[in-house]
User: What shape does this take?
Amino acid sequence: MPFIEDLDKMKRWNTYVTIGTIVGAFIFCVLVVLKAFSFAQAERKRIYVLDEDTPILAKQVDEELTIEVEAKAHINLFHQLFFTLAPDDKYINHNIEKSMYLIDESGLAQKNTLQEKGFYSNIISASATFAIMTDSIKFNKDDMSFIYYGKQRIERRTSILYRELVTTGKISKSTRTENNPHGLMIINYRTLQNKDLEYKTKNAF
Assistant: This one.
């Protein structure tokens, strides 16, 4: 009968619509979840820094792209701490202690050698001030090795001495901490050159 046939068609049509609605809703939910996950991932890569009370968006760069910059900053920080000294035992101990967080036992060995030779006590007795100026840092990303070039300025009561400093070593990855902000470690550290460049006599008046 036509009525019954029409009724069956309507039922089939309603079934198709219902199934289509359910499938469509499922696909929509999946898309929403995927979009939300993608958005959350993107937000995790966003870093905000505060300029006084104003948050400013900073971009997070892939670690492989920043390793050279981080390594050079780490190497420079170590040399600034290890070779910036004043005739004050607390100042010396503070700088040396902080520098030891950035280097392995090769740095401790060099520090102990200098201590045994009376280097730090001589700084105090001679009222000497040591400063370091970085000229350049060559970093090889393939084997994580570096060569540091710098100049030391050693000022005493009656003279100023400039020395050329060249050191080398390698960089290994470590854990970022308050005392090691770059999350790196200098290993196999040694001095290649430390020679006098210029000597100046200070005026006595």
